[in-house]
Structure formats: C-alpha cells, structure tokens
Amino acid sequence: MISYEEALELLRTGIAPLARRTVPLAAAAGEVTGSAISARLTVPGFANAAMDGYVLRASATSTASPANPVHLPVAGLIAAGSAAPCTPGPGGAGDQAWEILTGAPVPATLDAVVPVERVTRVGATDGQPPSVMISAPLQPGQNVRFPGEDFLLGSTVVAAGIRLAPHHLMALAACGVDEVSVAARPRVAVLTTGGELEHQGANLAPGRIRDANGPYLRALLPLLGAGVVTTTTAADDATELRDRLQLLARTADLVLTTGGVSAGRLDLLPAAVREIGGEIVFHKVAIRPGKPVLHARLPGGALLFGLPGNPLAVAVGMRFFVTPALRALQGLAPERPGPAETLEPVRGRGNLRFFAKALADVDAAGRRHVRLLPGQESFKIAPLLRANCWAIVPEGTGDLPAGSVLQTLPLYPDDSAPP
Ligand code: AMP
Ligand code: MG
Fold it and tell me: What is the reported pTM?
C-alpha cells in the first residue's frame, strides 16, 4: 500500500497532456489553453477620449480660471468609430476644441479632454463657430486613454493551462484573437459494476439498490472538463467485465469503474484489468474512504481508475485521484488546498489519510474555520449534502486538538482565481 502523496506523484509524473485542437473564440469558454495566447492588437489601439466632452491642447488652458475663462472655438464633433480629424498643430491656425464622445480618437496634436459637465458651451453667432468656456487648467493626458495602457501587441494575454472563463474571452476578443489552441477534452467511459444495481424507480426487488454512482459521475465529469462517451453497467461476472473493459479502452482516454475492486469474492476488477493486458500502477492507497482504489494503464494507452463502489469512496476517488489525473490530461496546474482551523478535536485515522465531508466558513474576524460533519461512513451520502468542502486529516499525526489547522479543498475545483 502506498501513501496518498506517492500515488499523486505517480499521477503527476505518469500523465502527459492530450493533443491540442484549435477552436473559434466563440466556442472556447470552459476549454483549457494549450499554449500561451498573445495579443494581436495593442489595446487601446489609439489615444481616445475617456469621457464625453471637448478635446483640446492642455497648454491652451494654462491661464484658465473662473474669473478668466479660456474660450476655444469648437471645430466639430468626433464620434466613436470615426477616424481622428486633422487639426492644426501648435503655431498653426490657433487653438481649437473638438466635441468628443467616449472612445472617439484624440487628434494627434491634442492631448486632454475636458468633461462636458465642466464647460459652458456658447452657441454659434454672426458667422462665429460655437465655442466652449473652460474655467480651470487641464493637465496633458487628462481623460485620455493611451495606446497600450491595457495590452501591448505580442504580450501574453492568457498563459497556457488556464481554463477559459468569460473574462478571458473578453480580453482575448479585445486583443484581436479569433481562435485558440486548447487541450482536447478527455473522453471518459463510465462502467458501474454490481449485480445489485437498478437504474429506475423506487419499487426495488429485495437486495437491489439504485445506482447512485452513475448519475453522480455523469454530472461531475463535464464539470471537470471531460466528455462522457459511455455509461454502462456490468454484473459481477469475470467475462462480462473483461469484455466491457476491452471495448471501453478503445473509445476512451480514461475508463472509470465503480465497485468490485476490493477484497471480496466478487471483486473481479483487478483480475479483469490484468487479463486484458493492463498494467497496474497502484492498487490500494493509505486513505479513507476509498482505500482499495486502483489505477492502471490499459493497452492502447487509456488510463483506468477503479473506484470502490461506496458512493463516498467514489466521491473521494474522483476528488483526490481522478480530478488531478483529468487536470494533468488537460495541462491544468494542480490545485492548492486552503487552510482552515478546526473548532473541535479531530480523531486521527492512524496511518490512513482521511478525507472528511466538512463545512467551512469564515467568522466575523475573518478566520476560516472547518467542522467535520457527523456521519463519515463511506456509504452515507446525506452528510455530503450539508458539506461545502473536504477536510484533509493527515496520516500518522494521531488525534488533533481543537485549533489545529487542516487543509481543505472545495467540493468542486474552482479555476476562477488567477494562478
Ligand atoms: P463494492 O465496492 O462493489 O464492494 O461495493 C461497495 C458498496 O457500494 C456496496 O454496498 C455496494 O452495494 C455499493 N455500491 C456499489 N456500486 C454502487 C452504485 N453504483 N451506487 C450505489 N452504491 C453502490
Ligand atoms: Mg460490488
């Protein structure tokens, strides 16, 4: 039996990212960048007005005061989307202002925008153009957005290994990016095993139970960036199991099984994996729940995870083994657990690392606390409905007093924080 850290290391070193593919930006949300994406435009691309107002040369307003306002003739209107008009340079035909709207280009010889609320406009009279009265000096650059203040042409907008969220698409679109190279979505085949499983209804024959793992996995895998290619069930029968595995290995990057992996007479999965030529990377890890977890490589390269059948063993197996594996297949960085203080003593589980259904919250002073929920048995699903995280109780440290710091992971990965 290996430790959890040893198992994780085997996953991290043994799994290479899948091939990449190119997708249009419009279809890229939720995909993982396969390489760094650079800006194809400088953003802003040109000096433009940050406010509605009048664009002028700041130096023309240096003497402006309420008692002695500066009057500038208004040459016309510059709207967003138009090209900047040519205006006389310094020493030319005299200073002018242009009415300008937010986002419209600032002419090359002008350098400041006075907001519309801070001027008085005087209408045209006797062949004189309209003018604006400015009663305070402006600084060069005031209310102007300059080229490259947001992104520079060629600079990295999004690094490799980032799951693209809406805000990434906002930045990429602004930077002129139309397609992106992303990791292929791992194709996952799900095989729930057990002669007791039913898939419908509440009218169950004696000894039969509903398959809770299949719906869980079908719902969870897409959240982890994987595509579910098949979901199927096998009875506890060596031949059936072997034939199913062989078939699934051909169509999937990852085969996920539940049940039949521990030490019972009908736990037939390890033998079936060996029989089809699978190489077992590890079987049994010093954890609870889910100790009998099995990881193998199948002929043709597909990965296999055999999770024990108890629903909580499946949840732990998914969170602490399959999620890291799927992240590695997509080139996503490993997650980092976050600390929280336990308010109650925590019982150690000897040489096993214990993954506990837990509830974390932040108190009024900003301290994060975690509470292990009652009902930690691996068949109990109900406590999971009250949990918002997993608390990780390390192996080999004995019982922990109240006030100890435990590492926690949210129930589902959160990739929204910048790396
Ligand atoms: P096993 O790992 O096959 O020995 O199963 C361990 C426990 O999990 C048994 O009580 C099974 O009935 C239960 N179990 C196995 N598969 C499922 C499933 N798909 N949904 C709910 N419970 C299951
Ligand atoms: Mg079983």
Answer: 0.91
